[in-house]
From TrEMBL:
Lineage, highest ranks first: Bacteria, Pseudomonadati, Pseudomonadota, Gammaproteobacteria, Lysobacterales
Enzyme Commission number(s): 2.1.1.197
GO MF entries: malonyl-CoA methyltransferase activity
Domain Methyltransferase type residue range list: 52-148
Keyword field contains ATP-binding: no
Descriptive protein name: Malonyl-[acyl-carrier protein] O-methyltransferase
Task performed by this protein: Converts the free carboxyl group of a malonyl-thioester to its methyl ester by transfer of a methyl group from S-adenosyl-L-methionine (SAM). It allows to synthesize pimeloyl-ACP via the fatty acid synthetic pathway.
NCBIfam families named in the record: BioC
UniProt cross-references to PANTHER family, sorted A to Z: ARGININE-HYDROXYLASE NDUFAF5, MITOCHONDRIAL
Pfam families per record: Methyltransf_11
Enzyme class: transferase
SUPFAM superfamilies: S-adenosyl-L-methionine-dependent methyltransferases
């Protein structure tokens, strides 16, 4: 399913460097966040006890989750420690949330301990989908809700095409499409997944403005096969010239394909797949008492 791999250390490095500049460039992230929060209307329980924000970044989403669920324990989790340090600014004494440095594919939480799992534009930076959704399935309570957004393969297609005119090296990260994501969710045992695709087009006065924004967001190439040396000036100029041919109404377009989804934690006892191809079914001790003669 997945023919490419991300350099996790590079992903962490990119976002760590962007911690102080991220909120200067996160217009799209905030728009997607607004749409994602609407999916929480599907959660009909009175008040969740624990809400997990995976890939919380600078904590804007965590703050909104705490506003929505003031009595819940809200945990902002991110793999980049500088991002979590920046998130402290959004955690007030009236509405505090916890901050935990960890990876989404290895959540440091107990089985069935999360009522609502939220993640805004983080999952595209994880290439091991079975591990990712296996962990989501593991920590979600039965009937718990997971909502997330992720970038799809048409994201930055103009920039990718422009670089293809300059050389054959991967300069733009690749992302999985909705079908791969949906298949991985079902394979992990998540219930009733619903996925939608939205496309946004942002425009810029020149291609360099987009590159500055990507750098400020930490959303730069982390593909393991990326070139490690400096990009030559001639190739860079060829890329800029190719991008200029796509100018529309005096502006440079950049497409962002966003996959938005939600799913539910499975009932106790439903098997979930684990690495190695096996399956595990979990039961409480109380449910097993009296069953042995």
């Amino acid at each position: 399913m997945n023919e490419f791999h991300l350099d996790r250390r590079q992903v962490r490095r990119n976002f760590s460097r962007a911690a102080t500049t991220y909120e200067q460039h996160d217009v799209l992230q905030r728009e997607v966040q607004t749409q994602l929060l609407e999916r929480l209307d599907f959660y009909k329980e009175q008040q969740p006890a624990r809400v997990l924000d995976v890939g919380a970044g600078t904590g804007r989403g965590s703050e909104l989750l705490k506003q929505r669920y003031p009595k819940a324990e809200v945990i902002a989790m991110d793999l980049a420690l500088p991002m979590l340090r920046a998130a402290k600014a959004h955690s007030s004494w009236r509405r505090p949330f916890a901050r935990v440095c960890a990876e989404a594919s290895a959540l440091p939480l107990a089985d069935h301990s999360v009522d609502v799992l939220h993640s805004n534009l983080c999952f595209q930076w994880i290439d091991d989908l079975p591990a990712l959704f296996g962990e989501c399935m593991r920590v979600l309570k039965p009937g718990g809700l997971m909502v997330f957004s992720s970038f799809g393969p048409d994201t930055l297609k103009e920039l990718r095409a422009a670089w293809a005119e300059a050389d054959q090296q991967p300069h733009v990260s690749r992302f999985l499409d909705m079908h791969d994501v949906g298949d991985a969710m079902l394979a992990a045992g998540l219930r009733d997944p619903v996925l939608d695709v939205f496309r946004y087009t942002l425009t810029y006065s020149e291609p360099r403005k987009l590159l500055v924004e990507l750098q400020g967001l930490g959303a730069t190439n982390a593909d393991q096969t990326r070139g490690r040396g400096l990009t030559g000036k001639s190739r860079y100029r060829r890329m800029l010239a190719a991008y200029e041919t796509m100018r529309e109404d005096g502006r440079i377009p950049a497409t962002w394909e966003v996959v938005s989804a939600h799913a539910w934690g499975a009932p106790v006892g439903q098997p979930r797949r684990v690495s190695g191809g096996g399956e595990i079914a979990s039961f409480s001790i109380d449910s097993l008492r009296g069953s042995r003669r």
